Amino acid sequence: MTVELLTERARRARELVVDMAASPRGCHLGGSLSVLDILVAALHRASTGDGTEVVLSKGHAAAGLYAALHASGVIEENPAPVYGQKGHPYTGHPGPKVPGVRFPTGSLGHGVAYAAGWAMARRLDGLPGLGIAVAGDGELQEGLVWETCQVAAAQGLGNFVLVVDRNGGQNDGMVAEISPLPDLGARFASFGFEVSEVDGHDPAALSAVLSPDRAGERRPLAVIAATVKGKGVPPVEGKAASHYVTIDAARAAKWKRLIR
Amino acid sequence: MTLSGRDAYRDELTRLAEADRRILCLEADLGGKNHPFQLKHPERFFNLGIAEAAMVDMAAGLASAGFKPFVSTFAPFAALRAAESLKLTLGYLAAGVTVVAPYSGVSGAWFGTTHHCLEDLAVLRAFPGVVIAAPHGEAETRAVIAAAVASGRPHYVRTGRNAAYESLPWGDPVAWEAAGGELCLVSVGEEGTRLCLEARHRRPGLAHAHLPYVDHEHLAAAAVELERLHARFVVVEEHRAQGGVAEALALLMPTARVAGVNAGTGWPSEGGDHAEVMAALGLDLRAVLAAVDG
């Protein structure tokens, strides 16, 4: 039942992301589509009401976040028609004016630390709830990510979860060619993290890895989620050129019919 | 015994935390051994390690959950290394986080260029809504910290290293030591105030206004008071001219004559004690008196 619900939310969110790519602003399409299933699952986890906070640290996937928030019922209005428009909070990188968003992200690395701070607060208050940061794999080139991992492990923040949307792409090309991340799981493990590797487009697997309350855990959790840039929209699926896309309405209508 | 600014901060926060369970003390490995907060409230003291930007960002997360984080590291590492985190946490989010920055100016003396910070006011003053304090002496530092706890607003508090001074009587936005005459000395921070007090010793008739807060909001209020009583000002601050308080006051008081005595444009790159390193940058009593006489 949960899988069906999350699948349907992700499908609806993909339509909205394509709509935002068809806005005058265009959007970071490939990364928004790769991270969607992770966001939908994480927001579903937060909807249990235990104080879990989801921070999209790869803020350039803002279109994906807005779509996921709307499909999940956190944002009432459809953000797509007003994305990037004057007088509306749906900017190209998200901030706290958007319902369901506490922290401004987009300058990479900061969201990881915000989520760790949130997790620390829950622990200090003796309360349940996770601090879930969703980062890109290219984002892991930022020093602040590892600075935060060092602190989170040292502080025993077992309720801090860092999900890596490992789509293999970054702004100017492929992570593997620009600044590769070999042995990523081992890297997190060496920092003192638990590591879980999942299919980042499998709602059941994502739900399973995010569902424990991790009460009593002392090791933070790194979830390396294998994803595909442009996932679910065949014309851009797996294509590095999908990083930032602006399309017209006719193409958007065609692409939405192809969503899978 | 009078405490230095940074020791006064530690002691006052430790005292205030007894009554306020939401206060947290975060350090980035420069809090020293036997930090009084750690001794008294170990469950709310966190040495997060050498991770300044992460510390400030995590403080945003903690403040978002209702805590009152006080984070401290040397001024160059707070205001410059973690500048973007300060922009987002103190500026954009207006989070109830206080950053306490010892080693401001060249108070690190012989420690060298990396450990000096003559640019922090310029950086922090560019972030709207941040309360910026440069207290002089123990009592004023305690008052600033208590006000930060009570206000819930983002604060940046700069202190020196080990110099310990008796504060002037509290005044906000202006602590007047003496008024009268055309010219008024305006002092900022520990050493700026020391130099103004020394100048008044040499020129007993001089007026002297000390500014505990130097953000735009406080300076605008201070300018109204200053302009009402004086027409010419010599602003003394351990900071560069660019982005400093004299520059700001000159804009706020366009009809007044505002001169600055500051650290100029040089790089502090030689040894010496604190006063000697300041003097090498042109910031000493002689410079203050020259500006007064000019």
From TrEMBL, chain A:
InterPro entries: THDP-binding, Transketolase_N
Organismal lineage: Bacteria, Bacillati, Actinomycetota, Actinomycetes, Micromonosporales
Cofactor(s) needed: thiamine diphosphate
Full protein name: Transketolase
Family that this chain belongs to: Belongs to the transketolase family.
Record's keyword terms, sorted: Thiamine pyrophosphate
Residues in Transketolase N-terminal domain copies: 13-256
UniProt KW Iron keyword: no
Record has Zinc-finger as a keyword: no
GO molecular function, one term: magnesium ion binding
UniProt cross-references to Pfam families, sorted A to Z: Transketolase_N
UniProtKB/TrEMBL annotation, chain B:
An example Gene Ontology molecular-function term: magnesium ion binding
Residues covered by the Transketolase-like pyrimidine-binding domain: 3-167
Keyword DNA repair: no
SUPFAM superfamilies (alphabetical): Thiamin diphosphate-binding fold (THDP-binding) (SSF52518), TK C-terminal domain-like (SSF52922)
InterPro entries linked: PDH/Transketolase, THDP-binding, Transketo_C/PFOR_II, Transketolase-like_Pyr-bd
Names of the cofactor(s): thiamine diphosphate
UniProt keyword annotations, A-Z: Thiamine pyrophosphate
One Pfam family named in its UniProt record: Transket_pyr
Gene3D superfamilies reported for this sequence: 3.40.50.970
Family: Belongs to the transketolase family.
Cross-referenced PANTHER family: PYRUVATE DEHYDROGENASE E1 COMPONENT (PTHR43825), TRANSKETOLASE-LIKE PYRIMIDINE-BINDING DOMAIN-CONTAINING PROTEIN (PTHR43825:SF1)
Entry protein name: Transketolase
